[in-house]
Task: structure prediction
Amino acid sequence: MTTLRAEGVSKRYPTARGGVDALRSVSLGIASGESVAIVGPSGCGKSTLLGLIAALEPPTRGSIVVDDLDLAGLDEAARARYRREAVGLVFQSTNLLPFLTAVENVDVALALRTQSDPAAARALLETLELAEHADRLPDQLSGGQRQRVGIARAVVHRPRLILADEPTGELDTTSSARTMDLLRRVQRELGATLIVVTHDEGIARSLDRLVYLRDGRVVGDTASTRATGV
Ligand code: ADP
Result:
């Protein structure tokens, strides 16, 4: 079970004009199994925060502790190991390999980490309601179906943390809602924690909690109306 605690996290990117403060002393606790939307205007630091939690790069100041692991203290090899084992990353664009079928695209993610397990890949596609599409190539799938294959590929190694950056950004409303329902189903089955960066109010409100960022700071943190039943 994963708990996450960010304490005084800042991120400054050096630029020709002296640097950009993408995050300014962000503190945040996320409980195991929680689903959290990170929302706010473009440029407020959402993707930066997700990237720090994914240990794609270290914070400039502060600490991010996932279970007992302090990400700020890890070297590049340890960060890569944490990403490989504990994190599942879902992006707006799936970048599936066009010459592999859906099930092969999912299985290759396992093969790269541990070892190939086509049965596990197929079972996960079934959970994502893609059983009949498992042997199709990406260009024989709809955008929503491709995104579900992308989700399967991101979580087939059973990560404790699922991090999604605008996962429904290229989908229409109906397809977005269905994709999120299935992502939540997979999250629950894995007992994972889910953090989603999104511009979409409806998507954000479908999660347990909303964290609002502005100019690199947390300016709001509320249980969603769905979670409180209001
Ligand atoms: P959001 O995801 O909310 O749109 P980002 O986290 O992408 O915001 O960016 C926050 C701020 O940091 C922006 O001003 C952006 O231009 C800047 N930024 C992000 N990544 C870099 C980088 N690699 N180098 C320089 N500035 C960056």
Q: What stands out?
A: Helices lie at 46-53, 76-86, 102-113, 118-127, 143-155, 173-190, 201-205, 225-228. The pocket of adenosine-5'-diphosphate is lined by residues 13, 15, 20, 22, 40, 42-48 (CB under 6 Å). The longest helix spans residues 173-190. The mean pLDDT is 94.
